[in-house]
Amino acid sequence: MPADKLGRYMTSDLFKSKANAAVERAVAKLRAKGITPAYSTRQTASPSQTSPSCHSPQEPKANEGADDDTATE
Predict the structure, then answer these.
(1) Are residues 58 and 52 in contact, defined by beta-carbon separation less than 8 angstroms?
(2) pLDDT by residue (tens digit) across 4-29?
(3) Checking CA distances to 12, which of 21, 26, 64, 65 falls within 20 to 30 Å?
(4) In angstroms, rounded to a whole number, what is the distance separating the alpha carbons of residues 12 and 15?
């Protein structure tokens, strides 16, 4: 599956509903065995805390070691 198609699927409502159903089944199985699942709530990161998108312009990376006199050939 191409990455763009996978990305669209993973952000779709269908994927979210399937993932939520899978989590509900897993929790039910744990509870049936007497195991209480631990829950943690993540806060949504603000846009300034997220990694840059693959579509946003980025600074070119410096060519490390290209002009280094200590480099061996």
Answers:
(1) yes
(2) 899 999 999 999 999 999 999 999 99
(3) 26
(4) 5
Separation between Cα atoms, residue 65 and residue 71, nearest integer Å: 7
Interatomic CA distance for residues 29 and 22, integer angstroms: 11
CA distances from 3 to 7, 20, 47, 73 (A): 6, 22, 22, 38
Q: Which residue has the tokens 């050939």?
A: 73
CB atoms closer than 10 angstroms to residue 30: 13
